[in-house]
Write a structure and sequence with these properties.
heterodimer, A: mainly beta, five-stranded antiparallel sheet, B: 115 residues, seven-stranded mixed sheet, four-stranded antiparallel sheet, 0% helix
Chain lengths: 112, 115
Amino acid sequence: QQQVKQSPQSLIVQKGGISIINCAYENTAFDYFPWYQQFPGKGPALLIAIRPDVSEKKEGRFTISFNKSAKQFSLHIMDSQPGDSATYFCAALYNQGGKLIFGQGTELSVKP
Amino acid sequence: GAGVSQTPSNKVTEKGKYVELRCDPISGHTALYWYRQSLGQGPEFLIYFQGTGAADDSGLPNDRFFAVRPEGSVSTLKIQRTERGDSAVYLCASSALGQGNSPLHFGNGTRLTVT
């Protein structure tokens, strides 16, 4: 089954808070898990990515936590800023091929 | 440098008409991808080119959809006999290495509206 489930659908966070978005997958053949950020009217842009042999990856204020046994991964945005307000998509790559499977998206709003 | 360019940015067409959507990838990128994004949804894979050939076209919904990349650079997505359900944003992306784990660079999409 090639599906990635993402939650929550929308999220409101105060400036300076932590935003957490969760994803779950079924297919154990997925071997690369990127997160994309999308602003209205723009295409998605790669934010951060992780492979399943690593449990955590941090880049600046963005951290991916990966739980291979539970087939779950999450994005944490520390010190959330109003400029982080966007839609975030998790994705999974099937067996090093070219097809990325995207989650349904989370609309994040960071209030000043 | 220039990013992925998609033209037109908006296209309105009548049901039953034929449309072509164009994608200019980043220069030198060997892989090119087409995705479709409906309102409030994540991008849905359509087709992936490695050079001139379609490496995976499993996402094309039916035979009304066709894509070409004749010289390994510019690509055109062609939709015949358009239906209202085809209305969506069509996104193009390119990557340097032709593997899904090399970053995909997306264009801003073509918003297709079928009336």
